[in-house]
């Protein structure tokens, strides 16, 4: 069977450091997105209201969660021809960041990490791990 006749699964790892320059705008956009998502869902009204209140509280308390609630991996690959998103997980966290530091690398400062901060033999296959939509 040739390569073109078989399915190939590829794990794409992307790590970004983003500076939040307007926390109020970020939180407001996240709250608008939550409201739109819950208005569009046909879920049970009581369950939906409780989920919405929890999501709103989370994005109000944590800028990293507000950002994660707005990121959708499907949007990143939906326009790429010949690929279909099979699974995605993502997370966010507030970090100490000094772009001028000589020892800062993407992915943290673990000694076992290879190029771009990714461990050379990393096999973590965790689902979820963050805010999912």
Can you tell me about this structure?
This protein is mostly helical and 133 residues long. It has a domain at 22-81. The protein is built from four helices and no strands. Helix 1 crosses helix 3. The longest helix has 18 residues, at 23-40. It starts with 22 loop residues before the first helix and ends in a 56-residue tail after the last helix.
TL;DR?
This protein has 133 residues and is an all-alpha fold.
Beta strands, count? 0
Share of residues in helices:
25-40%
Head-to-tail CA distance between termini:
37 Å
C-alpha Rg, in Å?
Answer: 18 Å
Instruction: Average the pLDDT over all residues and give the rounded result.
Output: 78
Question: Can you tell me the overall shape?
Answer: flat
Helix/strand class: mainly alpha
**Percentage of β-strand residues:** under 5%
Are there runs of 5+ residues with pLDDT below 50, and where?
A: 109-133
Secondary-structure element order, as H and E?
HHHH
Please work out how many helical segments DSSP would assign: 4
Major beta-sheet overview: none
């Amino acid at each position: 069977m040739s390569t073109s006749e078989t399915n190939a699964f590829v794990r794409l790892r992307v790590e970004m450091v983003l500076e939040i320059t307007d926390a109020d705008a970020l939180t407001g956009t996240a709250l608008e997105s939550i409201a739109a998502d819950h208005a569009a869902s046909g879920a049970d009204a009581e369950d939906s209201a409780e989920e919405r209140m929890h999501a709103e509280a989370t994005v109000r308390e944590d800028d990293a969660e507000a950002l994660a609630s707005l990121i959708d991996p499907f949007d990143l690959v939906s326009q790429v021809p010949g690929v279909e998103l099979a699974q995605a997980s993502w997370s966010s966290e507030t970090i100490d960041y000094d772009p001028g530091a000589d020892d800062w690398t993407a992915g943290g400062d673990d000694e076992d990490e290879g190029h771009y901060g990714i461990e050379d033999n990393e096999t973590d296959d965790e689902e979820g791990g963050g805010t999912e939509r």
